[in-house]
Amino acid sequence: MTTIEFNTQLLNIENHLQQFAYSLTNNEDDAKDLVQDTLLKAITNQEKYENDTNLKAWTFTIMKNTFINNYRRKMKSNTLIDTTDDLYFINTSSDNPVEIAESKQAAKEIVKAIKKLEPEQRKPFEMHVAGFKYKEIADHMEISIGTVKSRIFFTRKKLMSQLHEYNN
Predict the structure, then answer these.
(1) Phi/psi of residue 41, each to 5°?
(2) Radius of gyration of the chain (CA)
(3) Is 62 exposed, middle or buried (0-12, 13-18, 19+ CB in 10 A)?
(4) Distance (Å, rounded) from C-alpha 162 to C-alpha 17?
């Protein structure tokens, strides 16, 4: 495939790329930036594209990987590394006392709502929150994985409706 054909095909799928980028970012400007980054990478790596393969899928993969890498880079740059000898920054609280009190009250109400659940709903939910895998919960409770998943799903849904004032 010639460079002109390649570029023409890229331009033909640009609208699809824009829609996919927006679905990833939920922001129009970020989506446009992601499309530009993707097109640039596709053009600079044209020699890696194999003829007679799906160009749209290839560019969507580039976009998805670019989005993930940008996200990881962003999260890493937001990480605070405390290099002081006594870990002063980590041990210093900058939280507002009112926010702490509200968070503690919210946590108490959430725990109270969880304790009101029926045991067959509460147990798998608590185990899931504690980090157990669906298979581990199913084995422990001697029920199917599908039952575990549905109980956790419906418990989460029920709690969200009961505690709607804490939803973001």
Answers:
(1) -65, -40
(2) 24
(3) buried
(4) 39
Residue 151, C-beta contacts closer than 8 angstroms, at least 6 positions apart: 120, 121, 124, 125
Domains of the chain, first to last: 3-77 (1.10.1740.10), 96-166 (1.10.10.10)
Q: Return the percent helix, strand and coil in the chain, to nearest 5.
A: 75, 0, 25
Q: For tokens 């053009």, name the residue.
A: 43
Q: What is the DSSP string of 100-115?
A: HHHHHHHHHHHHHHHH
Angle at the Cα of 95 (from 91 to 96), degrees rounded to 5? 150
Contact (CB, 8 A) for 155 and 124: yes
The string of pLDDT tens digits covering residues 101-154 is: 677 777 788 888 888 888 888 899 888 888 889 999 999 999 999 999 999 999
40 has a pLDDT exceeding 70: yes
Tokens, residue 152: 């956790």
pTM, 2 dp: 0.48
Lowest mean pLDDT segment, chosen from 11-20, 68-77, 81-90, 124-133:
81-90
